[in-house]
Amino acid sequence: MRDLFLLTLGAAVFGCSQAVYSQQSNPSPVPVPVSSTSGGGNLLGLPPLSVPVDNPQTPAKIALGDKLFHDKRFSVDGTISCATCHDASKGFTDNLPVSAGHHGLTGTRNAPTVINAAFFKSQFWDGREPDLERQSKQPFVNPVEAGLPNHQPILDIVREDPDYKAAFTEVFKVGGPQLTMDHVAKAIASFERSIVAGNSAFDRYYFTGDKTALTEQQQRGFQLFLGQGRCVSCHTIEQDHALFTDNRFHNIGIGINAVQQDLPRLTQAFFEAKIRGGDVDKIVLTDKKSSELGRFAINDSFNDIGAFKTPTLRNIALTAPYMHDGSLKTLKEVVNHYNNGGVTPADAQATAFLSGGIRPLNLTDVQIDELVAFLEALTSDQYAKNGAKTGGSHE
Ligand code: HEC
Ligand code: HEC
What is the CATH classification number for the domain harbouring 166? Predict the structure, then answer.
């Protein structure tokens, strides 16, 4: 019931948060499913990918987006690109607890993977942007990320640089003042829509019926994921695909205890900052305590204090450390957190804002290891070769 309430509330307020916080109002694109992207190969286990009608995928656009994603000139000190924090060799994360931007300034949040972000119904831990196009404009002007004062320095480069001039002319038929941040954002989003990966051991086990794809330990872990662990209630698996996220927001007891005492003051200060026209993207990434407000910062709902978006679990073994604040170092620490009923350390007090779905699980040490082994079976073949740290049972 509460979940249903939250879902409706989330949907109802979402439209107005966009109007308030996104500077550019794109025409709302109607997503069209691209059926050729579902099915086997690297995409085994993924749903069809929706692509906005006003931003179709083309190889040239994806290549342009790739170049923009890696261009360090779009930062105040020339050292930061999207790839600094979303590095392909680290599962498109930075493997840091919280990201470091220009001049080593640190933010408040852990960089989520960009792999499969194309499938999410909202972007960022608190879902404050609705799609990749709008998400991609923010990091350039965030004071602790690329740190630019505005988007003009980017436009100056892409309108002058011969390679960019040629590419934007080819892809969008634009140049000079007609070339805007919307084109830059579209190209980056197209590149991100090409970073999709299924085909893990789990997918071969579950979707193609290869019973040898998972070890017996992992199979027992899968049963715990579905049953006693109740993980699947938020990290969902559908009949013909799995994204391991319900695209909703839950408080699972991370970071909230540090601000619990301060909530009356914090929520009041946040309301006031918003009324004064404060930019939520900047506030939550520069102020540690405001960051902990989670979804509340977007929808003003006290029910959503400390609630964050359920992240995908695909490629989770590559993307340690974990949670919105990077506070849990290994998958074993994560499973322990759930086993404790949403608290770390085990003797801490559970928050009053905790999701109803989180309660002690009574898993044995053997079962905890089984669950971790299952999570390690979610790495896509195409990224497994990185040999990145498993984040598994070893500290
Ligand atoms: C300084 C590090 C840093 C840089 C640079 C950076 N990001 Fe991020 N990225 C983050 C962090 C941290 C978050 C989570 C922030 C939040 O949720 O409030 C994030 C979130 C995202 C998400 C949301 C994923 C999800 O699951 O919700 C996407 C997509 C993304 N970044 C793409 C990009 C793109 C594109 C660029 C370049 C334009 C970029 N990032 C630059 C650190 C960075
Ligand atoms: C009530 C919904 C819910 C349930 C049940 C749940 N999760 Fe989560 N999970 C979340 C949310 C929300 C987050 C992010 C929380 C945050 O950062 O504050 C998360 C984060 C994670 C992460 C870290 C992901 C990352 O990228 O940092 C892992 C791993 C994980 N969950 C595994 C599990 C396992 C294993 C179970 C079952 C034992 C489980 N979850 C049960 C909602 C849930």
Answer: 1.10.760.10
Which pLDDT score, from 0 to 100, does residue 26 have? 43
The response to whether residue 136 sits with its C-beta less than 6 Å from ligand 1 reads yes
Does the global pTM surpass 0.85? yes
How far apart are the CA of 241 and the centre of ligand 1, in A? 25
pLDDT of the residue at 7: 34
Residue 138 covered by a domain = yes
Place of tokens 């089984």: 370
Ligand 2 contacts CB of residue 357 (under 6 A): yes
Indicate whether 237 belongs to any domain.
no
- Beta strands of the chain (E only): which ranges? 31-34, 49-52, 249-250, 308-309
Residue nearest to atom 10 of ligand 1 (CA): 111
pLDDT of residue 385: 72
> Could you say which residues of the chain have pLDDT below 50?
1-27, 35-38, 388-395
Residue 377 lies in a domain: no
Q: Which position has the token pair 């190889």? A: 59
Q: How far apart are CA 48 and CA 275, in angstroms?
A: 40
Best residue among 95, 99, 188, 322 to mutate for probing ligand 1, ranked by most atoms within 8 Å of CB: 99
